[in-house]
Amino acid sequence: MRELSSLDRWTILYAVFAQLSFLWRWPASAAVASHFPVVHAGLVGLAIMAPRLRRHGPLGEFWASFYPLILVLALYTEIGLLNRALGFSRDPTVQAWEAALFGGQPSRDWIRAWPWPWLSWLLHLGYLSYYLILSASPLGLWFLGQRAGARDTVCLIMVGFYLCYAVFLIFPVAGPRYLFPQAENPATAIPVATFTQKLLNSRAAWGTAFPSSHVAASLVASLTAWRFSRPLGAVLVPLSVL
Questions:
Q1: What is the mean pLDDT of each run of 10 residues along the chain (242 residues)?
Q2: Cα–Cα distances in Å, from 192 out to 133, 140, 170, 199?
Q3: The model's pTM
């Protein structure tokens, strides 16, 4: 146990918190009841095994350094299944905050106020670059020989995810795309916008809209890349800003 890295310890802490949240919010769905504990118990097992894996060659070291990031989609999906089974969200509270801050609902109003295809291309490509940023930041550092930097990057990204996921478990917010009608104008008709919508329809997890793990993980990944490699960071930071 003394050989556990910071990543391993954060992973165990999150998995224990998630299990306690699951027990507190025991869902009616039998499928969630059978999968959720298994996934998070397995996560604890991987964290405990990680120090041993690090001593078993390059492949073991790579897996022990990246395992939570490889499994992050599964963790995200499990939260969505749990929240959907319970069917409770805090959307009215968050919408009231946004209305007080912006004087309206930006997620509903802005794309209708500025239905410009060129802006839609730019922002949707920025949105989709999330997947590139998450992989390019730690993998780029790893293959540049910055192994310690890559491990730090994965750890910080996962801390961002774990903190967001912890909030999702106790303060679920479905998000405006489930509550407001989708805009129909030139900005939503372009190919990248329709692709993004289809991706969200098939992959988004219910109750995981606030705070945005998409924004948090992108910023952490790009800024950490900048810390260890300015050329890599110079590519990723502008994408995160978009």
A1: 89 94 73 75 91 88 92 90 86 94 92 95 95 95 93 96 96 90 93 93 88 95 95 95 92
A2: 18, 26, 33, 10
A3: 0.92
